[in-house]
TrEMBL record:
Pfam families: Orn_Arg_deC_N (PF02784), Orn_DAP_Arg_deC (PF00278). Specifically catalyzes the decarboxylation of meso-diaminopimelate (meso-DAP) to L-lysine. It comes from Endozoicomonas elysicola. It catalyses: meso-2,6-diaminopimelate + H(+) = L-lysine + CO2. Homodimer. Keywords: Amino-acid biosynthesis, Decarboxylase, Lyase, Lysine biosynthesis, Pyridoxal phosphate. Residues 39-381 form the Orn/DAP/Arg decarboxylase 2 C-terminal domain. Belongs to the Orn/Lys/Arg decarboxylase class-II family. LysA subfamily. GO terms for biological process: lysine biosynthetic process via diaminopimelate. The active site is at C355. GO terms for molecular function: diaminopimelate decarboxylase activity; pyridoxal phosphate binding. This is Diaminopimelate decarboxylase. Residues 46-292 form the Orn/DAP/Arg decarboxylase 2 N-terminal domain.
């Protein structure tokens, strides 16, 4: 979290030693100005994590398609588009975001298990790089739409290599019993069909086995299976232009030791070279490893409630703002943004005001806090705001991007009126 650091306190409060900064701005200032809960992103962090992929791939043909679902704020997409990023999208909404943010449609890969006809048409109209096909039914549907529009649809088959990603079951996608992809053993038949279709051009092969992987083993196992398939396709006379190895690289939320993009990609590149696929364009679809550490969520302690069993720190952020702890029991580090010298550290369950016992941001956390303190929930840049909801008619948080000593509102806080503006009463 090098872009979010504790530094000597700027406001020199007598009991505060150091306080948290986002790049060069004390986060207290951001919270005072923009309110809480507040998502704060660091532009430099985003650029640094994108560049780690770029540097790892600069020596070969490649396409880095940032997975829009991880954080789809227009400003985030625009920062990446300016660096030349491509995008992995899963809906027409995400495509429109990419276009609105200045992204290049020719660098877009369209993933997702059931692309709707209107989505396919729009993607063909703007000319996406390719469709990642997840079933034979979808292949036929894309052929029909492309034919009707007199366009050629470039496709890549997302194959399911039946590899255990060893991650949370909800975010594991490469096993046979998952809904994703085409069984790798059946893929040659589907490739043959795709080759025979009039408005389909086969360009690649794709797989994505899961998210938050903390070792390279499952990625490399999947790669071996893809290589076998690629050999088989070559023998069938099918020429691929690219290999898309998906996203999935994990980040350190707690004490995980995770490979860097370069650790991981060095092994992939080496294996491709050994097998004679050095010239193939390598496509990656990273989401979390680009955005997670580039964001924190700030939330204010409303009340401290000691009970016989435990201490609760009730904060103004909740499961509707950051869902990951509730649904995946995910750990996010929580810190007080000021270091008090006169407050005892106790164990707290940090919970929100939503009416569910599952509404927590962290359990049994050692914190030295007082009412009114500002807490930071780390690693919230990916799958944070994007998974937020209006549950309990709570307004969605504001988002701010810090760039050096400047802070920009990139999404203002929602209002209650906006929430029900699209609803209506019966006559
Ligand atoms: N490509 C495809 C086809 C995907 O389905 C995903 C993520 C990615 C790329 C990006 O994966 P990443 O690099 O971010 O691991 N909400 C969950 C994560 C769901 C990931 C879904 N697919 C969470 O909060 O952990």
């Amino acid at each position: 979290m090098e872009w979010f650091t504790f530094q000597s306190s700027a406001n020199k409060a007598p009991s505060a030693n150091r306080e948290l900064f986002a790049e060069q701005i004390p986060v207290q200032q951001l919270a005072e100005k923009f309110g809480t809960p507040l998502y704060v992103y660091s532009r430099q962090a985003l650029e640094t994590s994108y560049n780690a992929y770029y540097q790892a791939l600069a020596d070969r043909d490649h396409l880095i398609c940032y997975a829009v679902k991880a954080n789809s704020n227009l400003a985030v997409l625009n920062v990446l588009a300016r660096l030349g990023a491509g995008f992995d999208i899963v809906s027409i909404g995400e495509l429109e975001r990419v276009l609105a943010a200045g992204g290049n449609p020719e660098k877009v890969v369209f993933s997702g298990v059931a692309k709707q006809r209107h989505e396919i048409r729009r993607a063909l109209e703007v000319g996406v790089h390719c469709f990642n096909i997840e079933s034979e039914q979808e292949l036929e549907r894309i052929q029909e739409e492309a034919q009707a529009m007199d366009k050629i649809a470039r496709v890549s088959l997302r194959v399911n290599p039946d590899v255990d990603a060893q991650t949370h079951p909800y975010i594991s996608t490469g096993l046979k019993d998952n809904k994703f992809g085409i069984d790798i053993n059946h893929a040659p038949v589907v490739y043959a069909r795709a080759e025979a279709l009039s408005h389909i051009e086969v360009v690649g092969v794709d797989c994505h086995i899961g998210s938050q992987l903390t070792t390279t083993g499952p990625f490399l196992d999947a790669l071996e299976r893809l290589l076998l398939l690629m050999d088989q396709l070559k023998a069938q006379g099918i020429q691929l232009k690219h290999l898309d190895i998906g996203g999935g690289l994990g980040v350190q939320y707690q004490d995980e030791v995770v490979p860097s993009p370069s650790d991981y990609l060095v092994s992939v590149k080496q294996r491709l070279a050994e097998k004679g696929y050095g010239d193939l364009t390598l496509v990656v679809e990273p989401g979390r490893s680009i955005a997670a550490q580039a964001g924190i969520m700030l939330t204010r302690v409303e009340l401290i409630k000691p009970t016989e069993q435990k201490n609760f720190a009730i904060v103004d952020g909740a499961m509707n703002d950051l869902l990951r702890p509730s649904i995946y029991s995910a750990w996010h580090t929580i810190v007080n943004t000021v270091e008090h010298s006169d407050v005892e550290s106790l164990s707290y369950d940090v919970v929100g005001p939503v009416c569910e016992s599952g509404d927590f941001l962290g359990k049994e956390r050692a914190l030295a806090i007082k009412e009114g303190d500002l807490l930071a929930i780390y690693s919230s840049g990916a799958y944070g705001f994007v998974m937020s909801s209006n549950y309990n008619t709570r307004c969605r948080a504001a988002e701010v991007m810090v760039d050096g000593s400047e802070a920009y509102v990139i999404r203002r806080r929602e209002t209650v009126e906006e929430q029900f503006a699209s609803e209506s009463l019966l006559p």
